[in-house]
Fold each of these.
Amino acid sequence: MDAVNVAVSGSRGRFHLDMAFEVPTNGVSVLFGPSGCGKTTILRCIAGLERMSGHVVVAGQSWQDDRRGLFLPPHLRQAGYVFQEASLFAHLNVRQNLEFGYKRRSASLTGGPSVDEMAGMLGIAHLVGRSPHNLSGGERQRVAIGRALLSAPRLLLMDEPFTGLDRQIKKEIIALFLHLRGRLAIPTLYVTHDMAEVAALADEMIVMADGRKIIQGPPSRVFERVDLQSATGRFEAGTLVVARMLERDIRYDLTRLELSGQDLFLTGVEAEIGEDVRLRIRARDVSLATERPTGISIRNILTGVIAEILVEPDTAFAETVVDIGGSRIRARITRMAVDELGLSIGSRVFALIKSVSFDRRV
């Protein structure tokens, strides 16, 4: 069966975890939620580093099945694990750390990148003779990712691996990881509480709170939920859309993209002409007008039709959903604005979006 099927439950002090989910064995599935909700515990249970009641099945192979009394030890699970801290072997240099991962591969496996090839792909070939304590945080995480991938795992587990890294370094490593993941086709379960990382990485998203699953699905659907902030404490409603890269404007250092037949202008997009780019648009960064504004600095003005109006209970706000040629964008505006603009289902509107409000898929 081409799926990762997990069901774990148990208590640690006053904390209780009761979690069950199934995700495909391709792409990146993200566990998202506030600190302390049980995300790391789930990864540890999958890896066999911690035990709770339940079962863990990866692509048809049982790693834990309490009904049969089965519990494979960690070294038999073929799971690659990248922690928040790189956790490299301090007594080994970079090459030796990478070789450790390579030696953990199943003897029946052939092909795949060599240690030197992996070092080259990760941009750390010049570091192979260094000790971990002579590496930067970003360099250590590259080594940790390489070591995990070289073990040719059936499942890659990543526990907030980019937390604390400089924004540009994080962006570069995420881009490298996406390239490697696509080439090696290793399913990944990724833990984060960073919405930008979800937008950049997730193919499937599981939102957690207080040891349980709140919702699961494609990020484009989950991002639309306006009721998740009360559960997670940090979720922010918005939209995930896919736009196509059209051209670069060298004069203004802008990139022109196409979304449902309309133009978007962004800065800093690293994509090839014709490539699809995934964008997150926060509901709070979208304003609405019933006439096209003139004499305004905002460049991204999209024409659409009101598809939904969702009043937020006990607040001054409403979430409106604007259909733009099949793409849906949310705008969080006041209920007063809804009334004064005379908005209703089917109203033609102009959605105003700031360029800086986009999260680019790197």
Amino acid sequence: MASATAHMGMLYPTPRGGYGTKQYNGRIHAFIGYKDSAWNMRFPCGGYAPGPVTNMKAGQRVNVRFFAPGMKDKDIKTQPKLTSPDRQFSQARHGGGLCEFSLSTDGGKTYHLIGRYTKTCPDVYYEWPVKIPDNAPSCTEKNSCLFVWSWTANILPQYYHNCADIHLTGVKGGKLSNKSIQIVDFPGHRQGVTAPGDGIKDKASTGPNPKEVAKNLNGTF
């Protein structure tokens, strides 16, 4: 299972198949298209069934966190700190890339972009804040409402897609952006696609770009 455990997954909000869930099988941090004797990572959401529900509301800041197999329980419960460049988790960031965050109200058929980080994302040593749009509509239908992280890696043409089930309390008459997410690198979509990275490979990055943080928290999308 070394090839699957060498990647990255979303930790918070808790995704389908995520760490600590009943479905957790050590594959949540594998890319779409990964297969072994126990699992086949499929689009959307890695093929996992609905999981724990996280309550969210319009205008809320969501501090997304990531998970790497080298993390210990204490580092999962509390945001880990980078104390030394020589002592880091093996997190296989693949040079960073493009992280996109979106909402789906139809179980993963369509996506509404709400945040984006480039080059330095993902990285377990940082929180990656995004904002549920102020004018987001409510979404309460079971198994249909999703908070989604997708990642197009830099060094390898691999695409990752984690989905957290949510209960979204929104505003009457609210509407989400029509901007969608990039979907690549598995059958039926463009192949061989990578995204610009930070050149740091699998070491800790410099974290979220402050300008991108501001844009994501302003609800620009």
Amino acid sequence: MINRLVVATPNKLLSIGRVNHIRNHVPMRFPAGTYDELQIPQGSWAEMHKQQNRLYNTYFIISATIATVLFAAAFYVSDINKYKLPKISNSEEGLKFLNPDPKALQYILEN
């Protein structure tokens, strides 16, 4: 019995209810609304729908244009063919700028 009293007393004194600092808090009561306080729709819903669609379409067109311009600029700057090797031309006209030896030029053209 004394053992139970010794163990139970500290548990009750240190329980969560005693340590909780908000034990006297009363929950807030949200105000009850009525249908009289709701907004009454006015005007044509179709006109409002057209107006909102006009705005959304404007945003869409502007953003699509910006995305296209950015994609084109990135494609232009990226220089995809940067490391592509040019076609090798072993013709006389292609090798003329090297001023090759005529015998060497003939050998290249034959092989």
Amino acid sequence: MDGPAHSRARRPRLAGVVAAVLLLLVAVTGCVVNTESTVPPGDRVHAQRVDALAAQLPPSTAAAGVLKVGANVPYAPNEFKDDDGTIVGFAVELVQALGDVLGVEAVFYESDF
């Protein structure tokens, strides 16, 4: 049941689920007013896994436990390199949270677009 046709049939649904999660994360982010940070610099907030969404991942991605992400890094604050050369930024944190929700690790690769 995991043949090419089955995989293609799941792609639009997976894309819709991912888009809905991203939209929800962006919407929820705008609903919070903080006067000070509750997360020490260098730490990141982890989101809770949602099994129903994780079940929508392609079997190969779920088995690998990794979501590979290309990032064009000269666009602070979206994505850029910190002093250590690590890819950081708003988009990175958002995709890391998405990885948490899907139960996989988001791994970033520098890429030109």
